# Entry
Amino acid sequence: MLDHDASVLLIYTGGTIGMIENAETGVLESVDFNHLKEHVPELKRFKFSIDTIQFNPPIDSSDMDPERWCTLVRIIEDNYNNYDGFVILHGTDTMAYSASVLSFMLENPDKPVILTGSQLPIGKIRTDGKENLITALEIAVDKDSEGNAMVPEVCVFFQNYLMRGNRTTKINAENFKAFNSYNYPVLAVAGTQIRYERHLIRKPSPGGTPRFHYWLDSNVMILKIFPGMSIDIVQAIFNNPQLKGVVLETYGAGNAPERKEFLDVLTRAVARGVVILNVSQCVSGSVEMTRYRSGKILEDAGVFSGYDMTTEAAVTKLMFLFGHGMDLEQVKQQIFQSLAGEITIPG
# Structure
């Protein structure tokens, strides 16, 4: 149900959707936000109010970082009571990371925060940006029969699908279907109508209020294992005294080499307080560390299962937890809690 008295805040960070092609170099360059409005006259047909804020200057999403994530949260907190929903226009390269971390930084929201963008600039005739933007705006103000937001959580909308933000991964650099949510069903499908899967959508805690967080710790990293990996290089990484957490991308159901030198590096890191979180290199499925011998050996070394979390959710969750000054035991407890629907714990 669209509320004609509703309002949405459109936040433009940058990205392909707001770029034009430099006539001399052929390179895509960010332009003023007015360029976007000029190419989407359909926005004038909405009955609800749309206000805009833009990053100045707009950024390529490759330059997204914790400081800018905090800027987004600050914009939303400062304007939270004035709007029914928020749409963030964002470059696709790091959109899944931003959607993941925002799902942790925006605790217990009762309004939609929808990230979207495009694979082609908005000025191109075949652009996917118009439909993505228009539908994201509709979802941001859509309410149920009781006047509650249909989707009160951080989401990504792309190519007709609304997905939980912390379950998304970018899967294609060229196709319009750029994102997928492999381990959690889509929350809505946009066809002739927008069909919501109400039972899959998170609801705010009864009696709770939204909370906004600004503390992140970047002393974490992602390590993708591969055949022939140098133990000396791995050891140099784990020996960094600033290191607090590692997302270890393993094979299949959570398997890794059984080489003693490799396991010794992990064991020593765990002993000095480094949290190692095991996620699969596979795009679908869950880590089961007791399924195979190599996974069980990792567990015995003190590595934690990330179950079905995406790499993007796992690394930003560690940044969030360490950023809040949690000690090792607190972080361990929170890893196995679903803070924003980012993980499915078996049983």
About this structure: Residues 7-212 form a domain with the Rossmann fold fold (CATH 3.40.50.1170). The radius of gyration is 21 Å. The chain has a mean pLDDT of 89.
